[in-house]
Amino acid sequence: MMHVSQRFQSEFTKTNFIYYCWTKEELSAPFDDSSTPVYQSGLRLMSIKFRTLNCPYHNRWMAEGKEGMM
Fold this sequence. Notes:
Helix content is 47%, strand content 0%. The chain is mostly helical and 70 residues long. The protein has one domain.
């Protein structure tokens, strides 16, 4: 029988994909923290804009007529 953590890792690997939406805080953090190399090099974030984008994976899911979890 497979160990619980091995089973979880296997399921996690098979059901996840690389698609992460960064928050404004995550994107601007290197510019705000004086201990980072970005800040120490003199780079400063002058402005930042965010827009809502549709998830291409969800769009494909819906276009294919899938049902269930999503």
